[in-house]
Amino acid sequence: MIDLLPVAISAIVVSFIVVLISMKFSLSSRYERKPRTRSLWSAQDHGIDPTDEAHHERA
Q1: Is residue 22 part of a domain?
Q2: Where are the bilayer-spanning segments (predicted)?
């Protein structure tokens, strides 16, 4: 049990440092998956009827 204590403490410290570093650095916005224009499929996901002409012209 005593032999595992330094290993456990090291694992906790390393994981804490990894979490802190990952929170500080974020991915570039080019990796985010956000559609630039609203397609007919994504319009349906937001409850917009694609057969409606008023919404269809804005898409």
Answers
A1: yes
A2: 6-27
Count the domains in the chain. Answer: 1
Residue 40 CB partners (closer than 8 Å, separation 6+) = 50, 59
CA 5, 8, 11, 13 torsion: positive or negative?
negative
Q: Look at residue 58 and tell me whether its pLDDT is greater than 90.
A: no
- Confidence at 42, pLDDT banded by 50, 70, 90: confident
pLDDT, greater one: 39 or 54: 39
Rounded CA separation 15/2 (Å) = 21
Q: In the structure encoding, which two tokens stand for residue 40, read together?
A: 């007919």
Whole-model pTM: value is 0.43
* Interatomic CA distance for residues 50 and 9, integer angstroms: 57
